[in-house]
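Tokens as discussed.
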């Protein structure tokens, strides 16, 4: 981690059914800090709770404030339960934009032809 004068960054929230991973990066894509619910000591089904997401986001806010980050863009991906709790906690930093990039299914590929006997 280099000491740079960074005041505007991106925060990626990947929220799955099993865990939540929050990554702080600059606009080049270089990771500055990251945290996950498993890293914070939550195990099993507790990793996907809003409380675990809140604690993970608090860790990122503390790391960001130490680096001098003032404004963030939030990018959310995944259907997990801790998305909103993490966003609320990250609002301690000045949030400019929130973007949801969760993939949406579109009925998939064409099914195979019906079997002829």
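Sequence:
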């Amino acid at each position: 981690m280099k000491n740079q004068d960074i005041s505007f960054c991106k925060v990626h929230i990947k929220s799955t059914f099993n865990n939540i991973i929050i990554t702080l990066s600059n606009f080049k894509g270089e990771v500055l800090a990251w945290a996950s619910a498993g890293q914070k000591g939550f195990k099993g089904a507790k990793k996907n709770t809003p409380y675990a997401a809140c604690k993970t986001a608090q860790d990122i806010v503390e790391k960001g404030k130490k680096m001098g980050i003032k404004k963030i863009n939030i990018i959310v991906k995944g259907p997990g339960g801790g998305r909103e709790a993490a966003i609320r906690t990250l609002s301690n930093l000045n949030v400019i934009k929130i973007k949801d990039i969760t993939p949406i299914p579109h009925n998939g590929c064409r099914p195979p032809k019906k079997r002829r006997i």
